[in-house]
Amino acid sequence: MKRIKSGINGIDILLQGGLPEKRTVLLSGSCGTGKSIFAAHFINQGLSMGENCVYVTFEESAHNLIDNLGSIGMNFEAMEKAGKLKIIGGAIGNIKFFKEKTKASAKDMAEEIKEVVLEIKAKRIVLDSLNLFLMLFDTDTERRHAMAELSSVFENISCTTIMTCEVKEGTRDLSWYGFEEFVVDGVISLYRVPFENMFERAVSVIKMRGINHSPNIVALQIRDDGIHVFPTKAPFHKIFG
Ligand SMILES: Nc1ncnc2c1ncn2[C@@H]1O[C@H](COP(=O)(O)OP(=O)(O)OP(=O)(O)O)[C@@H](O)[C@H]1O
Ligand SMILES: [Mg+2]
User: Fold this and answer.
1) In a domain, 235, yes or no
2) What is the pLDDT of residues 179-237, one digit of tens each?
3) Does the residue 84 lie in any domain?
4) Beta carbons within 10 angstroms of residue 168's beta carbon
5) Ligand 2 centre and the CA of 156: distance in Å?
């Protein structure tokens, strides 16, 4: 299985060589754990190696995303102008309105993403976030169906994909609805737990099909230049009592 650089050195070390190429990884964590920044490192790494990329956001406008990432030194605006990066989506309320108006199905939406991916021959995709995408559907059955449609469209486009997924604070959940983690090839979990008078950050690879990854929970920091993972440093705090 070919490996690709995730954009975060410590993660590639935990994975003993990097993310599996052309597979889909779920990046789970509660709010503010660094999911979007992690995903941006993944895109930035691809761009720096000349790969075109697609960032699908349901969290915010492309403008806000570019603004936020500018603060950790990533210039996505220039890459977008150069046609190497496409940022699609927008705030979830607008997407829901559009979906209801056009009666778009999960398949239609997945196909729309696929079209953009094929148009620029992208190698990497981020979907930020999967739980917001699934929130567009009303029942659990519809959401499972939407996940299946999304996976089957993505399976045919030969890209490496990161899907971010919010989890409820203070739980060991790996996804919002409880089934997303079973459909994907890998799961990486980001943590933020109280330690003395601060919150401590950590990360662990939960599963990665076909890869003998590290089982450890290790320290992670977010700084002005983004995420740093310390593959040999355990967090001070015992993450799960
Ligand atoms: N320059 C910086 N230095 C240190 N920490 C930062 C910096 N910029 C952002 N952060 C931290 O990163 C967090 C945001 O990370 P990010 O947006 O990737 O999280 P997220 O998991 O995607 O959150 P959400 O659930 O809201 O989508 C901020 O809440 C802040 O704690
Ligand atoms: Mg986010």
Assistant:
1) no
2) 999 999 999 999 998 888 999 999 999 999 999 999 999 999 999 999 999 999 999 88
3) yes
4) 10
5) 26
| Confidence tier at 238 by pLDDT (50, 70, 90) | confident
Ligand 1 site, residue 72, Cβ cutoff 6 A? yes
How many whole angstroms from 58 Cα to the centroid of ligand 2?
Answer: 9
What is the number of other CB atoms lying within 10 angstroms of the CB of residue 213? 19
39 belongs to a structural domain: yes
33: Cβ below 6 Å to ligand 1? Answer: yes
Q: Which residues of 79-90 are buried (b: 16+ CB within 10 A; e: fewer)?
A: beeeebbbbebb
Report the separation in Å between the CA atom of 153 and the middle of ligand 1, taken as the mean of its atom positions.
30
- Global pTM? 0.96
The answer to whether position 241 is within a domain reads: no
- Listed residue (124, 122, 107, 103) closest to 43, CA to CA: 124
97: enclosing H helix or E strand: helix 92-102
Closest CA to 15 of 188, 219, 220, 164: 188
